[in-house]
Amino acid sequence: MQNQTWQTLLAKLAEHAGIATDYYDIAGNLHFTSDDTRRAILTAMGFSVDSTESLTEALQEWDEAPWQRPCNSVQILRDGESGSTVSCYLTLEDGNEGSAVVEWQICDEANRVVQKGQAGPGLSATEVRVLKGRRHVRIEIPAPQGLSLGYYSLTIRAESLVGGNVGTMRVIVAPRQCYVPPFVEANQRLWGLALQLYSLSSDRNWGCGDFTDLGRIVEWAGKELGAGVIGLNPLHALRNTTPYHISPYAPNSRLYLNELYIDLERLPEFCGSEEAQRRFHAPEFQATLRALREGRLVDYDSIAAAKRTMLELAYRTFLTEAYSGEEPNLHPKTARARLLEQFIQSEGISLELYATFQTLEEERRLIQSKSATWHDWPKQFLMPGHAVREYAKRHPTRIRFFQYIQWVASEQLNEIRRATERLAMPIGLYHDLALGADRNGAEAWIYQSVLALGADCGAPPDAFAPEGQNWGLPPINPHALRASGYELMIQLLRNNFRSGGAIRLDHVMAFCRLFWIPHGKPASEGTYVYYPFEDLLAIVALESVRSKTLVIGEDLGTVPDWVREQLAKARVLSYRVFYFERGADGTMKSPGDYPAQSLAVATTHDLPTLTGFWSGEDLEVRAGLGAITDDASRHRAWEERQRDKAHILNALKRENLLPNGVTEDLATAPAMTAELCRAIHLYLARTPSCIVLANLEDGLGELSQTNLPGTVDSHPNWTRKYAVRVDAIVCDARLRQLGAVLRLTRPLG
Q: Quick check: pTM over 0.85?
């Protein structure tokens, strides 16, 4: 039992670190943060908290930290803002600050000096602190003015700077709002289709949807249906091994793309490789492809093995025909090789580290075991450093292979982006940025210094998950993130914003606060940790404006009103799901009650499809898995579902949208029909929401939902294919009719 002093110090350090004392769940119940939770989260942040002495030392270090460095690590300036200052920390004798001179210069992202100057003499101390017998003073100098939007490096020089004569900080000049496309400014409203790319089946793909299938859907939806946007599941890099490494929301890395989406048959080096063509046309391989295409579920392991084998053969041909010389002195001799080299150069150290991780992991699993993770690697490889750089120098060909994979994936994705521009789609592709990444993956290895690997993130109890949720993903440590100049966040946003016109930020509340849970514990032992919301929103706005990307924040669950207000001010669209848009009495909100600055959708990947909802399929599945434990609970769930369906029919009646022969009496609407599906989407189309998305599975009448939260291997999450193939999708009368009513309500231009 810890003493009262320890508890007091623990609570004080937790407060400094942004750990909530308590929180209210969605039902208004107050939860207090326990000392065990505080201790575990502080430990995950890197603090030593096991004794009164260690806590005292940690608090002292926290208090003195700003005084132990020459300047802060990062400062945000808003575009057009004046009167800002930069803090410098000097060690001076009493009264000497007036004679101090601080020289500074600021460089842009190309390392060009864009401004320089000096402050002083005549400076006065804003604050004074004596540490270890030395007098430290804080001096404020004017922040650089007139900088255009972007990232800068500010260098400060003074003889008496704390920690030496030179200090550097990252200066970020950001707009106050995210990018808003012209159609939004003109109060026009769009509609589009949302789909799971891997779920597309066709007679030509290798067992899951690929970029060629996506291109076909884009051409059809943009040209024939009048869709202005195509929404996608996260395309992040996965290991593609079942059952634990196929969720697009727990990826290997959010910075790069999943190689399963590459269409091998469009690669010149695949077509030009005699060995690849011999193996591809072999009866055994063709039989494998037929089985993969005909399967109702995506066989990730087999598809990944087939594509990786052929990518290796294509790459081998590429090296032979497009380069001269030998490693490490390869020289590109074709235009295509030069494009790869340009891509490698532009991606820089991030891609090099990702490719190095892939190479290391491949080798270590052969040497150690298939189950080995990077946490089990030899000490010299546990984090990027000198030994890793030397390893990379010894394996340039293999590292270039993984860079090559990302190049061909990005080329094929960018080709689709260009197609959306040619079709004059106002948004084009709508991407999805996952909240976190697998703690055993490449992203966690590369950026481990800013992650809290001793914690998980999740959600407190809400109507969707009464017990709360633990997603098993390590949260970003907000203090380490800021100390790094927000580098991980900048890279994530930049890489994910660049290939589409809109992006959905999964669990956008994490920019303000995130629910942390001690690693491996249930959600009931978690609490909120607060983040530098204003800084992170500024970076989102900057990357949005630079890439001209519309930002949608997935703000479902427990969201304080003030968070939504700040997001709205930053022009981040709210994410409104028809199922959840209800009044206090359970009735559906009228179309006019939806905010204009929002995206509206009937359902999501974590919820039943319209057909599944109407039939109660999800309730049957949950009962079969033991989530609904007795007949009484099953009866209550079914009765609640009937009330929900009645509310939907009543809402449609208010808008005169009930299909012929259907009344508010459930007996007249025993099943979800194409007509009822269209009525629900027309209801959403009448909202002021600037975008309405129709899920492809709803238009096709699919029964089963994409993902059943809380399950991994007991339910076929992330593996279901659409029952209708791409060639038939583009001729499907249900989708044509759905598109026609939405196009009429929300015409392009």
A: yes
